[in-house]
Amino acid sequence: MNLPQVPSFRLDGKRALVTGASSGIGLGCATALASAGAEVICAARGAEKLTQVVEAISAAGWSARALPLDQTDLGALAQTFEGPAFDVVVNSAGMARHSPALETTPQDYDAVMDVDLRSAYFLSAYAAKAMKREARSGSIIHISSQMGHVGGVERAVYSAAKHGLEGMVKSMAIEWGELGIRINTLCPTFIRTPLTAPTFANPERAAWILEKIKLGRVGEVSDIMGGLIYLASEASAMVTGTALMIDGGWTAD
After folding, report:
1. Domain ranges in the chain?
2. What is the pTM for the complete model shown?
3. Which residues have a catalytic role annotated?
4. Which of 39, 108, 162, 236, by CA, is between 20 and 30 Å from 6?
5. How far is the C-alpha of 78 from the C-alpha of 125, rounded, in Å?
């Protein structure tokens, strides 16, 4: 009997780009890909933090380089993909400005949409064009959110951006499937990072979060790393246009 072959989760010989890689979930993504054997280009606006990230990844014996980048600068973003195509592209750059919907300003709306949806759209398109140019299959992964599937108090703008991201990914997956280009989202619940510290410091918000997460705890950066490796590797070769929920059961209701 010939047993089926287990696909590899390794990324040896692959080049990966991670935006928003200087902290939080983005740092976790860069670390995960590097640990699986990929050469990781870590992109973010803060050059000093990027240098620290690359030094730490290199010290662990893995491969990483820094790329200072403002993802909302579409000219600079396009230049990022003028060289050799990446095998894996992870968009972890994001912004949130929470407020009651009746108090949302046009400035806050535009700022969130610029980062969370507009730049994500063109990053995907530029990455796919490069892959197509080289007839290279690849995996594009967006760090979305459970809020791309549900709503939340004071999160109308953020949720709108993430719902838009989910629809965008489905459409792009349909267009690019014949090219062998996969595109998916990874949708975490509330993850403990410096950016979410103010939310967890609010007793009412913390109680709401724990009540909604069926596993009874908030997420840690390490919780997203396995799912990311799955979507980046050949283990998910038949997966595109979908959302991987890492939400502790939040959206199971």
Report:
1. 15-248
2. 0.96
3. 158
4. 39
5. 9
